[in-house]
Structure formats: structure tokens, C-alpha cells
Design the sequence.
């Protein structure tokens, strides 16, 4: 998964893309309250999703502490 971060009014825009399917993508910053405009989404191969994050953190701290996770594997009937 790749990310780009752009400064916007009130915070940042994080654009994510992936070369493989990413299920339930979730962004967080541990110990800091932030508001993510969109969270918990699926990301298809080649798709780009941009999420606005409202925060007062400086760019360097935001970029270093931003954690992006997704479910790996998934559910299969057996």
C-alpha cells in the first residue's frame, strides 16, 4: 500500500493506493484524537482513496505516527 499526504485547511489529505485488494483499511494515530473523514473501507487494486484528516499535528509528526492497517487473509467457508 502506498500513501501520499497533502496539507489542506484544517489538516491533511491522505491518498492511499494498493496493487492488491486491501480489506477494511483503517487509519489511526495512537494516543491522539483525530477525526478521519472516512475510515474502514475496502481498497481495490489500482484504486485511489483520499481521506481528509482533521488534526493540528505538524506534518512530520503526522506522517511519522500515522498507522494504516487492513485485514489480511479474510474469511473462507470450510
Sequence:
Amino acid at each position: 500500500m502506498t500513501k501520499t499526504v497533502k496539507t489542506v485547511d484544517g489538516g491533511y489529505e491522505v491518498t492511499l493506493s494498493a496493487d492488491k485488494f486491501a480489506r477494511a483499511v483503517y487509519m489511526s494515530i495512537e494516543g491522539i484524537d483525530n477525526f478521519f473523514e472516512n475510515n474502514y473501507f475496502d481498497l481495490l487494486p489500482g484504486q485511489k482513496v483520499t481521506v481528509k484528516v482533521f488534526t493540528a499535528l505538524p506534518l512530520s509528526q503526522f506522517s511519522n505516527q500515522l498507522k494504516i492497517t487492513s485485514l489480511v487473509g479474510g474469511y473462507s467457508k470450510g
